[in-house]
Design a protein that fits this description.
heterodimer, A: mainly alpha, 14 helices, B: mainly alpha, two-stranded antiparallel sheet, 71% helix
């Protein structure tokens, strides 16, 4: 009886927090369908009729559409590049003993502690010098490099679980080390690759400040920068509905992506990654 | 393995070199460059870069914004560490140990803010606080507390706590998952034994759960501190830009404004070094405070 009551008591804070998390999102979603007059009339009321005008306007008039495409580009390219750089290094650090491997690993890990703000000014001038400002390929590369240490960290913990005998057997059969790395080890750490890539992709999709500094033309903006710009414009023009529609466009893909892959995120968080 | 030394080194270089080179160019060089630039007076344009030694640092000491910004940074650190740890520990225990049927639902929902961009969170909450169209004031009005309604982000005293709330809102899910991972790996027999000995649930929490997930608690606290000192300026920059006045200014947003809005790149770099020093010192001190013998039963 007391247990049942206490379980009921525990549900109250859980329900309240769910409400605090979900309500702003619902409010944002409903706002995206409202006209300005409706938004000012009451924040609680539902829209009179379902119209998608705000979405169309955000997508084309406020260049959220092109920003969406740009974000998709840097997210995909950044995630792939990050894997290409991290898988071989993680393998070498985990499996091949060599002089300095400890130092190299610690260098990568220590760099995660250093605030990235410190590097932004030199990074800006480095890209300026090589004419790579305003370049989505360069931004993808920088995203990829910024997540190399984290990705190595996750992949190493997964590679530690691959039985050494498999590699030894393949080597006896005459497979080259390159073959062992790409045909044996890489497929076996698939779940580590997926976990790291999901987390990387979500942070690249959401990144804002480096894009703000390193991109200049409006046509190159990624979603974060375009949203901030849309906010400024919306404040001048009181285009609140359009702003809410823009927020929805930025959030909905991640929520769908997360719902599909959430098992992997939970697994990566609780098992391999952080101990 | 039959392979020559040369082949072995070739393979090692294939694995390590390309990664290390891009890492040096885009991570190591910018960080060392940040240190180097902090000794120059530099507006970023052309070749006018004058070595001024420690002058930027002297200016830091006399800049009245800096102490306020440091204080605000630590305000975020404290509020976030306590807010996030208390709530996520409570939720983690509730969802793992009280056999709640719909636990996966809460686990998924609580993580939602973690996958959202800080810009989106910042903009969304800016309008939640908006005096005209926001829900906070309209909620206060609805429950008859109209006199409490205010332009939250424009208020000298309330702006800072108003930014801290979305920061906590966005942080719970991740740390709850981390702590849940720790709690589920505790052997059930420990709790059964404690139950037989007549230990209350409260005692079980303090004597079993907390000591055994101490490593996860420690990791979470350190992680919150680092990300707060290095990253809470994004929310500040999006929501208030440091205002009203300098009420919500933190070091990161001040760096951005001085460097990329006022083009004082040398001074901005010096602020960057200050952020580095402060976060390293804080983490070292924290390691001492949180040091505790590993418990095993």
């Amino acid at each position: 009886m007391i247990r049942a009551l206490s379980r009921l008591a525990v549900r109250i804070p859980l329900l309240i927090w769910s409400f605090i998390v979900v309500f702003p999102l619902i409010w944002m979603f409903i706002g995206a369908f409202k006209t300005n007059a409706e938004i000012f009339a009451s924040p609680w009321a539902l829209p009179q009729k379902l119209n998608f005008h705000n979405f169309v306007s955000a997508w084309s008039d406020y260049s959220i559409g092109s920003a969406f495409a740009n974000s998709l580009f840097v997210t995909l390219l950044g995630t792939l590049l990050c894997l290409a750089f991290s898988i071989p290094t993680a393998y070498a650090l985990e499996r091949l003993r060599f002089k300095g491997s400890e130092i190299l690993l610690n260098t990568y890990l220590a760099s995660m502690m250093i605030p990235s703000v410190l590097g932004w000014i030199p990074l800006f001038f480095l890209l300026l010098k090589f004419n790579m400002l305003d370049n989505l390929w360069a931004l993808s590369l920088i995203y990829a490099v910024s997540h190399i240490p984290f990705t190595i960290f996750i992949l190493i913990s997964f590679m530690g679980n691959v039985p050494k005998e498999l590699e030894e057997a393949a080597a006896i059969d005459g497979m080259t080390p390159y073959g062992i790395l790409f045909k044996i080890v890489t497929p076996l750490v698939k779940s580590g690759i997926i976990t790291a890539s999901i987390l990387n992709a979500i942070s690249f999709w959401n990144e804002y400040f480096m894009a703000l500094i390193l991109l200049q033309e409006d046509s190159k903006n990624t979603l974060g920068v375009a949203m901030d710009l849309l906010k400024t414009n919306a404040q001048y023009e009181s285009a609140w509905g359009v702003l809410f529609a823009g927020l929805c466009i930025a959030v909905i893909p991640v929520i769908i992506f997360y719902s599909i892959f959430q098992r992997h995120i939970v697994k990566g968080m609780t098992e391999g990654a952080i101990k | 393995m039959v392979q020559s030394k040369k082949q072995k080194y070739l393979f090692l270089s294939f694995c390590l070199l390309p990664t290390f080179i891009v890492f040096c160019i885009f991570t190591v060089y910018p960080m060392l460059g940040g240190l180097y630039f902090s000794f120059f007076d530099w507006s970023g344009t052309s070749s006018v870069k004058e070595f001024i030694g420690l002058d930027n640092y002297k200016q830091l000491l006399n800049d009245s914004v800096i102490p306020k910004a440091i204080l605000n940074d630590y305000f975020f650190v404290f509020v976030k560490v306590f807010g996030i740890m208390i709530l996520s520990l409570f939720f983690a225990v509730a969802l793992t140990q009280l056999r709640i049927k719909e636990a996966p639902f809460y686990r998924i929902v609580f993580f939602f803010p973690n996958i959202m961009s800080v810009v989106v969170i910042g903009i969304l909450w800016q309008f939640i606080y908006d005096p005209n169209i926001g829900i906070v004031n309209s909620l206060l009005k609805a429950i008859g507390l109209e006199q409490w309604a205010k332009p939250w982000l424009g208020d000298m005293t309330w702006a800072l706590p108003s930014i801290a709330i979305p920061a906590i809102w966005a942080g719970i899910g991740l740390f709850m998952l981390l702590l849940m991972g720790g709690i589920t790996s505790i052997s059930k027999s420990l709790y059964e034994a404690a139950e037989i000995d007549g230990a209350s649930e409260w005692q079980q929490f303090w004597k079993i759960t907390v000591p055994l997930i101490w490593p996860q608690i420690k990791t979470s606290i350190i992680y919150i501190v680092i990300t707060s000192l290095n990253g809470s300026f994004v929310l500040v920059q999006v929501m208030t830009g440091g205002g009203p006045g300098i009420a919500t200014e933190v070091l990161g947003s001040y760096l951005y404004q001085r460097a990329f809005e006022d083009f004082k790149f040398g001074y901005g770099a010096a602020i960057g070094v200050l952020i580095l020093v402060i976060s390293l010192l804080t983490v070292i001190i924290l390691q001492f405070i949180l040091k505790k013998e590993k418990v095993e039963y």
